[in-house]
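Methods — Computational structure assignment.
A single polypeptide chain was analysed. Its primary sequence is given first, followed by the predicted tertiary structure written as structure tokens.
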Amino acid sequence: MANTLDAFFESIAWPMEPFPSYGAFHILYTLIGFAVCAFAAWKLRRVSDRAARWILFSIGLVLILSEVFKQLFYYFVMMDNRYSWGDFPFQLCSVPMYLCLIAPWLKPGKLQRGMYSFMVLYNLLGGAISFTEPSGLLLDHWFLTIHACIWHMLLVFIGLFICFSKRGGNQQADYVGATYSFIVMCVIAFGLNCFVQFVLGQSMNMFFVGPGNSPLIVFNQFSRWFGWYINTPIYIFAVCLGAWMLFVLIYWAQNKALPFRKKQKIS
């Protein structure tokens, strides 16, 4: 069985010269993809709760099946029949794979709305930013490039769909709920990182919160200068600030007012 899988994945391991950042493919895919996601999310904004559940759940199934396929590809092709803990699927942009399978079936309330808001304010932000610095998308194998580009574009659609349908990310309490979700996941990620590094003796840096140095631009330099323990709170604050700025933009677009503006008393 293992030999069959090995042969199969080797047969589809088509290498490629990575597309250049801000080349024709990158720019066209980003512009057309964002436009299609926005159009589809807007057209679907008034679907019933039942339909919305199945839309998100179906996307979750697509994500998790494609992730299993990617993990096998890494195991057999990229890592020569060894598992790479550094590619374990619990990064910020991996979380919707789980939330889309869980959140639609929760009872409407703070927990569900917090998860939905997280996918708007944090995953939409992460998915969109990945297209501004596409080194993690434009890779050296066709399968990995296609997978990464489609994956992150789906994050954009999920966030826009939830946002346009007002299921999360547009009320004043939504930022708090989404940020609680983010902090909880950072704690889980840090625990996983410590277990893999100190117990299994392998390298792992989920959410880039340590105890290894962050590979992200700017934050990598902070890690080298001051240590991961100084960089981590700076990084978490920066992500939360980015999510706050996105929330303010969404709130203003839907209410034509800032979320922190006090209402004037009527005399």
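Note: The chain is about 65% helix and 0% strand.
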